[in-house]
Amino acid sequence: MVILRGFLVLVVFFLLGEAVRVLAGLPISGGVLGMVMATLTLMVRGRVSNELAAASQGLISVLVLLITPGVVGVFFIVDQFAGHWATVVVALVIGTLLSVLTTLLLMKKVAGQSEEGNGHG
């Protein structure tokens, strides 16, 4: 039951993101907007509920399955990339480097906070 409550929270944020996208006419995925809203909410609260943590852990284990449909969809619109492959490659490389850098900085910050919380820092 705990996981179901966590999924409900995630679905609510997804629906909120979709509503904002439709009402504002934004060219951004409702899921992305929902996750940004969820992140901001969690930052304000300063903690993650047990329900949301349990649901998120379940989703992380199948993350590849969640990404696959979007990747497969690219093959149906591959002709739209004609003549833009250099741009796509540059965007992929820069996006990957930025995500790795962001992950590194976040992990350093989280690791530093956990050491302080344990009295070792």
Structure, explained:
With 121 residues, the chain is mainly alpha-helical. Helices cover 79% and strands 0% of the residues. The chain has five helices and no strands. The chain has helices spanning 2-24, 30-45, 50-60, 63-74, 85-117. Helix 1 packs across helix 2 and helix 1 packs across helix 3. The longest helix is centred in the C-terminal third of the chain and has 33 residues, at 85-117. The chain is globular, with a radius of gyration of 18 Å. The mean pLDDT is 85.
Features:
mainly alpha, 0% strand, 121 residues
Summarize the structure.
The chain is an all-alpha fold.
The helix tally amounts to 5
Helical/strand content category: mainly alpha
Approximately how much helix is present in the residues? over 70%
Strand segment tally: 0
* Share in β-strands: under 5%
Amino- and carboxy-terminal Cα gap: 37 Å
Rg, rounded, reads 18 Å
Order of H and E elements: HHHHH
| Morphology | globular
Specify the biggest β-sheet: none
**Low-confidence segments:** none
Averaged pLDDT: 85
